[in-house]
Amino acid sequence: MVWGGPGEDCGVVGAAAGTGKTMAENVTNELILEHLKAIQSKLSTMDGRMQNLETDTRSVKGHMASFLQAEVAQDGAIAAIHARLDRIERRLDISD
Prior knowledge:
By secondary structure, the chain is an all-alpha fold. It contains 2 helices and no strands.
């Protein structure tokens, strides 16, 4: 392709050569529609992938919440065991 400067017509080398038309004049509505359909298809695919990622993210967040809840429960159980151990050591007069 040969590009002109600002305000100049662009000459075309290739399919439109010799027709006397610029590249913009050779673009048809069908060609534009074809490209728009391809873009729409890709956007639809991306939308589906995005929804899958959102679902996966929600799932991971749920698992993390369950994990943290279990960790808090374990921390409580360990604290109770330490309290009982301290009480036993005091009763037996055992201390470090």
